[in-house]
Amino acid sequence: MSDISIMTYLTSLLENVGFPVMVTLFLLIRYEVRIKQLEDHSKNLSDLIKDLRRDMT
Fold first, then answer.
1. N or C: which end of the chain has fewer CB within 10 A?
2. What pLDDT digit, counting tens, does each position of 3-55 carry?
3. CA distance 36 to 29
4. Any stretches that span the bilayer, and where are they (predicted)?
5. Residue 12 carries which DSSP code?
6. In angstroms, rounded to a whole number, what is the distance separating the alpha carbons of residues 47 and 53?
7. Which residues have C-beta within 8 Å of that of residue 1, sequence separation ≥ 6?
8. What count of Cα atoms within 13 Å lies in the side-chain half-sphere of residue 17?
């Protein structure tokens, strides 16, 4: 293979695969942030429930 055909192949591969990879990475990063927020809210809720149970007894 010549250098030009290799570069053409790599460019084509990047165009076809690069976009889905970037979208996947973007969504995974957003998902990670959402999971972290969910964990924080869950901990806060758990602490609030414990406090309310202590107040009832």
1. C
2. 778 888 878 887 888 888 888 888 998 999 999 999 999 999 999 999 999 98
3. 11
4. 6-29
5. H
6. 10
7. 9
8. 6
* Domain boundary assignment for the chain: 25-57
Strand ranges inside 1-57, DSSP E:
none
Token pair of 14, please?
């990047």
Task: Outline where 1-57 has alpha helix (H).
Answer: 3-56
Q: What global pTM score does this model have? A: 0.56
Measured at the alpha carbon of residue 57, what is the angle toward residues 52 and 45, in degrees to the nearest 5? 15
**Look-up: residue for tokens 């192949």?**
9
- Tokens found for residue 47: 């602490």
Output the pLDDT for position 4. Answer: 79
User: Does pLDDT of 1 surpass 90?
Assistant: no
